[in-house]
Specification:
Largest sheet: 6 strands, mixed
Strand order of the largest sheet: 1-2-12-7-3-5
Number of helices: 7
Order of helices and strands: HEHEHEEEEEEEHHEHHEE
CATH architecture: 4-Layer Sandwich
CATH superfamily: CNF1/YfiH-like putative cysteine hydrolases
Strand content: 15-25%
Structural class: alpha/beta
Number of strands: 12
Bound molecules: zinc ion
Length: 257
Amino acid sequence: MGQNPATEHRRSNKSPEIRTAPVEVWRSRFPWAVAGMTLRTPGVQRPNFGLFTRLPAVEAMEAWGALLDDVGARAAVHSRQVHADSVAVHGREERPGNGLSITGAGDGHVTDRTGVLLTVTVADCVPVFVLDPERRAIALLHAGWRGAAAGIVERGLSELKTTYGSAPRDCWLHLGTSICGSCYEVGPEVLHAFGLPPAPTVDLRRVLASKAESAGIPPGQVTMDADCTLCGQNRYFSHRGGDPGRQVAFLMVRDPA
Ligand SMILES: [Zn+2]
């Protein structure tokens, strides 16, 4: 293999420790998929995955490398997120090299390729995990209120349908850890965007769940975490809590055994 043991040793010493939490409701049901989120080291801005922040990029690249090792991914795709509804399809003709590939601006990824980790970064926004067990096609979306209002969930589902023939009734959708409905204080424009009556806060996961169901996913196939990035137990970064750090949400179809 020609690997230099000294280099390996140095790398393992420098690699940040990565801890992840799986999407528990999917773990035994869909063993062919890897779905989860990274956890924060409590009290510090680590691990740092920020590629588009002022945090040191070298640190971020080491964290991404450690994440890929941890989940057993050959390659990962990520975008500069812009709170819109653009979704990138990573088809079989696309051959990202090993390691992390950054695609253009966008807030979602769709694929049926194995061993390629779809990723979005979040710190209060909602990571939206979607899979079609029939066709083993997946989507991972980043949804803040602007993206939700722009139709990122509907767009992700429509890309799955167009590209892989995945009907919404065959899809399962999970809303990951994000800011909760008690903590997410918003202005009237946000409630207006969702056609909701005036209120001091909004539960974005509930809004997204109802959009998913309206798009045709059976309610029994829509689930959500209860954890909150802001009032949780300091396990996550929170943008509103003043953290520059982000967690990575990830979704992958495993390589065949
Ligand atoms: Zn909360």
